[in-house]
C-alpha cells in the first residue's frame, strides 16, 4: 500500500469517527430532550400521542431499510406490525384470574383456552414473540419470493396480497381474536395497571430508547460493506449476482430484520394505544407507512423518522382543527412531495447542503464507484496481501 493511500485511508477513518461522534452526540441530546424535557411541557394525552408516533417511526426505519437501501417496495408491513401488536395483546388479555378466559371468548361460547394461547401466558415468551414471529414469517415469505427472483412491482403486489389474506383471517376469527373489534380493555402488565400514568410514561421512555436502538442497528447495517452490498442490490442486482454474491440470502435477511422491527413497533404502539385490531393489517395502513418514508426521504434513516412524525402530527393537527376537510390537507401534502420534492424532505435538504445528520452519501453506481476512496483502499489492501 502506497504512503498516499495509507494517509488517505487514515484521514477517511478519522472523518468517519468524527462524524459518528457528532451524530451520537446529537441523538443523545434529542433523547434527553424527549425523556426529561418534553414530558414537562405537554399534557399526558399529548405525551401518549407522541409515544405512539415514535413507535410508528420505528416501523418507518424498517421500511426504509428494505425499500430505501435495498430497493424492495413492501406494501405488506402492516402484517408484521399487527402480529407484534397481537403477540403482546394476547399476553395482556391473559392477565385474568386462574381458570378464567379472556372476556371476549365467553361471548362466543369458548369454554377452553385455545392451545396456541397458552405460551403467551409467560411474559418472556410474549416479548420474544413480538419480534420472532414477524421476523420468521418475513424470512419465510421472503425466501419463497426471492428464490424465484421475483422483484419490482411483482414483489409489491405479492406483499399487498398477503396483507389482504392476513386482514381477512384475523377479521373473521371472532372466537380466537375477537374479529373486527380486536383485543381491547387491557388491565395489567407485570402486576401494574396498563392505563395508569406511570405505566404509560414507562412505555413512552421505552419507546424512545427502542427507537434509538433501532436507528443504531439500521445505521450499522447500512454502513460498511454490508450497506454497500444492499445499495448494489438496489441499483444492479444482476451485476451483484455475476460478481459471485447470492442476492437472495441478503434480501431474505434484510426482509426478516425489517419484519422484526415492524413487530417491535406494533407491540409498543399497542401498549400505548390500549388496543390492537385487524385494522393494523389493512392495506391502506401499509401504504401509509411507505408514504411516511417517501415524504421524509427514502434512503435516509433520519428521513424515515422525520416523515413518520411529520405526517402523523399533521394528520392529528388538521383532524382536530379542520375535522371536515382535513383529508384534503393530507392529500395536498402528498401531492406536494411527489411533484415538488420527489426525494423527500431530507433529500431536498441534502441537495441544499442544509442537513448532514445521519447522511451517508449514497454510493454511486458504475462507473463512479471506481474512484471511490474506500474501494481504492480496499483494492490496494487486497493487492498487498496477494503480493505477500
Structural features, described:
It is found in: Cell membrane. The chain crosses the membrane at residues 20-43, 49-67, 72-92, 122-146, 153-170, 201-218, 250-269, 289-313, 325-349. One of its GO terms (molecular function) is branched-chain amino acid transmembrane transporter activity. The chain is mainly alpha-helical and 388 residues long. It has one domain (42-385). It has 15 helices and four strands. The protein has helices spanning 3-41, 44-69, 77-93, 103-107, 123-146, 153-171, 174-177, 197-221, 224-242, 247-273, 283-296, 301-321, 326-340, 344-351, 373-387, and strands at residues 183-184, 188-189, 192-193, 275-276. The strands form two sheets. The protein has a two-stranded antiparallel sheet. A two-stranded antiparallel ribbon has the order 2-3. Strand 2 (188-189) and strand 3 (192-193) form a beta hairpin. The longest helix has 39 residues, at 3-41. The relative contact order is 0.15. The model is unreliable at 355-369 (pLDDT under 50).
Amino acid at each position: 500500500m502506497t504512503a498516499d493511500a495509507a494517509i488517505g485511508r487514515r484521514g477517511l477513518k478519522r472523518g468517519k469517527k468524527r462524524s459518528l461522534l457528532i451524530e451520537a452526540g446529537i441523538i443523545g441530546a434529542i433523547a434527553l430532550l424527549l425523556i426529561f424535557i418534553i414530558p414537562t411541557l405537554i399534557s399526558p394525552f399529548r405525551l401518549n400521542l407522541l409515544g405512539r408516533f415514535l413507535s410508528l417511526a420505528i416501523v418507518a426505519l424498517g421500511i426504509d431499510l428494505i425499500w430505501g437501501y435495498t430497493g424492495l417496495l413492501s406494501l405488506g408491513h402492516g402484517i408484521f406490525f399487527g402480529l407484534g401488536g397481537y403477540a403482546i395483546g394476547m399476553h395482556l388479555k391473559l392477565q385474568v384470574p386462574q381458570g378464567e378466559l379472556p372476556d371476549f371468548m365467553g361471548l362466543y361460547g369458548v369454554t377452553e383456552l385455545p392451545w396456541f394461547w397458552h405460551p403467551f401466558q409467560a411474559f418472556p415468551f410474549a416479548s420474544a414473540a413480538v419480534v420472532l414471529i414477524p421476523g420468521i414469517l418475513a424470512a419465510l415469505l421472503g425466501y419463497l419470493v426471492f428464490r424465484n427472483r421475483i422483484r419490482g412491482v411483482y414483489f409489491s403486489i405479492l406483499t399487498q396480497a398477503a396483507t389482504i389474506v392476513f386482514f381477512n383471517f384475523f377479521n373473521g376469527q371472532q372466537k380466537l381474536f375477537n374479529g373486527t373489534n380486536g383485543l381491547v380493555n387491557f388491565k395489567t402488565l407485570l402486576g401494574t395497571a396498563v392505563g395508569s400514568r406511570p405505566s404509560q410514561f414507562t412505555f413512552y421512555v421505552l419507546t424512545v430508547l427502542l427507537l434509538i436502538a433501532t436507528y443504531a442497528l439500521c445505521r450499522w447495517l447500512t454502513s460498511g460493506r454490508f450497506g454497500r452490498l444492499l445499495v448494489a442490490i438496489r441499483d444492479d442486482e444482476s451485476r451483484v449476482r455475476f460478481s459471485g454474491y447470492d442476492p437472495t440470502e441478503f434480501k431474505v435477511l434484510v426482509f426478516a430484520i425489517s419484519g422484526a422491527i415492524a413487530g417491535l413497533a406494533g407491540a409498543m404502539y399497542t401498549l400505548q394505544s390500549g388496543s390492537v385490531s385487524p385494522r393494523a393489517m389493512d392495506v391502506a395502513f401499509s401504504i401509509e407507512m411507505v408514504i411516511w418514508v417517501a415524504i421524509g426521504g427514502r434512503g435516509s434513516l433520519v428521513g424515515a423518522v422525520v416523515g413518520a412524525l411529520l405526517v402523523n402530527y399533521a394528520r392529528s393537527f388538521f383532524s382536530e382543527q379542520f375535522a371536515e376537510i382535513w383529508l384534503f390537507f393530507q392529500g395536498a401534502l402528498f401531492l406536494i412531495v411527489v411533484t415538488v420534492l420527489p426525494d423527500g424532505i431530507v433529500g431536498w435538504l441534502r441537495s441544499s447542503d442544509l442537513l448532514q445528520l445521519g447522511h451517508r452519501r449514497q454510493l454511486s453506481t458504475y462507473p463512479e464507484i471506481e474512484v471511490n476512496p474506500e474501494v481504492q483502499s480496499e483494492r490496494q489492501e487486497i493487492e498487498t496481501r496477494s503480493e505477500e
